[in-house]
Amino acid sequence: MTPNHFSTPSHPTLLRRAVLFAFGLGALLPAVMAGAQQSGSGRSDDVWAGVEEMVVSGSTAGNILADVARSNSVTAFSSDDLEAIGAADISDIANFTPNLEIVVAGATAPTFFIRGIGLNDFNANAAGAVAVYADDVPLNNPALQLGSLYDIENAAVLRGPQGSGPFRNASAGSIKVYSRKPTGDYGAEIQAEFGNFQSRDIQGSIQFPITEDTLWARIAFRTVNRKGTFKNRCAAAPPKNTRVPSATYCGERSRFRKISNVDENQPKWLNSRNNWALRGVFLFQPDLPGDIDSNWTLVFRGARLDQPSVVGQSIGTNGIQRFIDPALDTVAEVVNPSLFLKPQIFGLFGQPDQRGYQDPDILKAELSSIDALMRAVCATTCTVGQRAGAREEGRRRVAQDLARDLDSNPHLGAISHPGGTTNDTFGTSLKGVIEIGDTMELMTITGYDQWQRVVDIDLDFTPNTRFENNTADDGHQIFQELRLNGTALDGLDEIYGGPLDWEVGAFILTEELNVDIKNNFGGLAPGIARRRTYTQDITSIGAYAGASWDFWDAFTVDGGFRFNYERREIDYTLFTSVPFFVKDEFTGTEPTGHVRLTWRPNEESSLYMKFTHGWKSGTFNAAGSRFRNVNPAASEKIDAFEIGLRGSYFDDRLNLTLSLFHYDYRDYQLFTAIDENNQPIQFVILNASDVELFGSEVEATFLPWEGGLLDIKFAWLEGEFLEYVQTQIRERQIGFSVTQILTEVDRSGNRLLNAPRYSVTITVRQGFPLGRFGSMSFRYDGTWKAVTYFDPSEGRGSPNQDLVFVLPKDTIAQEAYWLHNLRLAYYTPDETVEVAAWVRNVENRTYKSFGADLTEFQKTTLFFVGEPRTFGVSTRIKF
Predict the structure, then answer these.
(1) What residue segments make up the domains of the chain, in order of their start?
(2) pTM of the full predicted structure?
(3) 2-50+187-229+260-311+415-878 in CATH: which number?
(4) Which of 26, 258, 367, 763 could join 711 in a cystine, given CB atoms 3.0 to 4.6 angstroms apart?
């Protein structure tokens, strides 16, 4: 085996930029604070003035405020915000939250990134770096995390590692969603939305008291149905018993005397939606003697998703790039590599894949490009060299266009097997808050969730059978948390400025997961695993404590500590020609915490400085080959420093939030594609040694006049791999023999994936009173993101057998783009009826939501595409 080393250019170290960044900050803060001191006064102390307004009720209120205090950097969404951006699930908020990326490769496989940190793991045992909570219960498995958003009080994105408090594995941050609680009154609400693609979105709620003073209920539901947005050329294939041998129906490869295996009677439209969800919330407030008050919230929730699997585009790379000298005049010269202008490159984006399929739209674009070049190069008769050169250059130009925008019909393709995804989830939680006197509160949270999911997908996105995957998994989790908080040393306010607020607690989460995966490679590569099964058990325990003290007139110091323990066990079987068995376990422990100093120079502003140490447990690689086994990735650790400002100015007409942060990661977990040993593409988790990033976020809300609002959120992020060398075993054709070589690809200095350098969101809202006829409201939501990479190669994929990059720049990436949403609503005078018209993705912008390079195994690339333009009307009635 011959070692070989290949490196990519390294960017200037981020540490030097961080030093300049710190000097700039030192110059900025005095001016900011001077402006804060000159602001008007006359309002109560409001440390969180820069956060979007959050209307809270019941026992949820204290928890949301505690989350804000614990995180500092938070973006909140009200129910109106979620409706305006058309949020069907939490993945839809990513486009309108700077420094939040949620990648969905399928209907039930989300991955989350906050400030460039996350894990692109789509496996059933994925362990992300962003903790997702519903009503304070963690949703650990991906099958639980994309539930429908309906009847929501609010949602909050907490940025940065959560080193203290009741958080688990939140080395990047957390997302929290809270359901609406009953208020004790009678009420009902129904909302219906109808749009293109025959979409129907019906949701509603009803609340009522079961007993007048102690037990209240709220029942809510949502159903979403929509025809698919992806048109399938392979639909309506004839029954197999009527097919002619060797015939093709939608571009599949025709084998001599063989019947096409394209599924018959499959739907014409894919990427449809067919979901329902139901939730019941019961609030119990018993009348207890003495100074003890309590309230208990019981939640039941269930949901079902049943639809064809989500599909996308496949673009082949099985070509050769030749650089023809137009002066050549014979066929023998044109095909002679020694006469090329520069060495040929094995691999060309946009060409057929390993099974010979090329999308008709790509072929049409290629022929058009070649024809245009020939007419430009030679007006009358072309020489052999000119014709050959035009063909090669035309294909390269099409490759550049495809890398940027995909083909001309990104929502049209040929899928031989539509498969299907079903996911049935059920959960219940009980949350109790017991107030003991005026100084102490006990909280208990108990949760149980289960799921049963099947994902049958034609993952190659072509009419041939190359890589079809059927995954069936089921499992359940149990969660319990106890928390006690209170106030001590009341006399401190007479000496040092304030009492000591404290909190202690502990939680335990257990999960059992069962997975069965079947792969169909269409007869390719004998000996490759066709099936893998495993069970995984997780036990995660955390114990935490925290305190906050107003130790001086305008200063508060607070800190927290958490001890983390996690144990994982796996029983794994890989079925090849001979079954391969593995039984493994590992345990991870780590103390984490934070300390913060807050200064409030006046009633309108506050400045904070915070240090956090975070941690995320290691995880098993359940998708690797027998060569890699299930070797677990090591735990990742982070040290994060953040400073920020919150303020309200000009009589509350301007609310401003500013944060600046710097992260150092050790053993950063990276989910990446591995091509080696002539195996199928392997998506495994590796430790990328050290990662450094820093950046800034600014959120400003302006209220310029009555009924007007302008909200601007801006994020800047610099992140790179300080040290990451990816080692793979590759095959290289040398003469008539195949040799295995050890390849080292140096990714050090490359930008982090799912971490655009800049992102901006803008919301403009204006109300128009109509007197006794009611009112109208106009709302615009826009978002812009810089280039986003989907792998650690900065969008170039893997090098070929000669260690040359084949794909054009930004192929496995999404270039900078805008999305625009519009909404116009009418309200009756009492606001009990609302009628609205809306358009989302106004320009019908095509954008990639995820991409992967599979060149080494199947000579192709895969892309999931974002939602096309949708429009419609909605109405809401309150009783």
Answers:
(1) 2-50+187-229+260-311+415-878, 315-405
(2) 0.87
(3) 2.40.170.20
(4) 763
